[in-house]
Model the fold of this input.
Amino acid sequence: MPLLPTFTITYAPQRLSLPDADVYLLLRFIPEAEQASLWQRLQQEIAWRQEEIKLFGKTIPQPRLTAWYGDAGKSYTYSGLTWQPLPWIPVLTQLREKLLSTTGISFNSVLLNLYRTGQDSMGWHADDEPELGPSPIIASISLGQERSFHFRHRIQPDVKQKLILPSGSLLLMAGQTQHHWQHQVPKSAKPLEPRINLTFRVIR
Ligand SMILES: O=C(O)CCC(=O)C(=O)O
Ligand SMILES: [Fe+2]
Done:
C-alpha cells in the first residue's frame, strides 16, 4: 500500500500532506477550559434525533444521532430526502462567529453528529452535494471522545490517511478535497465515550 508522509502533531494549524486535497487541522480551536460547558450545552440544547436511512431497499436507523441548523431557506438534499434546517440557537451562532473570525468564512448551516459509543459511526462518503458548490468548504469541530478519521483516495482507494480527531480540534476541508477523497469515522471495538461533531457548511 502506498504510504503517505506521516502527519506530525503540532498546535499550529497544519496542512495535511494529502495529494489533490486542501485539508487543515487546528488542534486547539476550542480551549480545554471551555470544552466541558460547550459539551453540556450541545448535549442539552440540540434537538438530537435518530434518523432512518435506506440501505439496499431496507430502512435502518442511522448509527448516530444528528441535527441540522442553518439559515432559513438553505435546504439540503441528502439520501433522497430534503431537510429543512432548524433556526440558529446562541450556542451555534457563537461557534459560527468564532469560525468567521478564525477562517474568514461565513458558514450558513451546520450538521451535528452525536456518536454515542464506539458502535456509532459514519461510513465512507464525500460531501459533494450540488448545493455545496464546486469546491465545498467544511469546518468540522470535534468534542469529547477522540475518534479515528480516515481519508481514502477515490480512484486509488488503497491510498489512505488516518488521523485522530481530539476534543477541541478543527478540521477544515476545502478546494477539491471532496472530489478526490472520501472520508469515514469507523466503528471501534473498544468501549468509547460519546463524541459530538459539528460540520459547518456553506450552502449556495
Ligand atoms: O464526525 C466526523 O468527524 C465527520 C462527520 C462527517 O463527515 C459529516 O458530517 O459529513
Ligand atoms: Fe463528511
Q: What stands out?
A: Helices lie at 32-45, 90-103, 177-180. The longest strand covers residues 109-115.
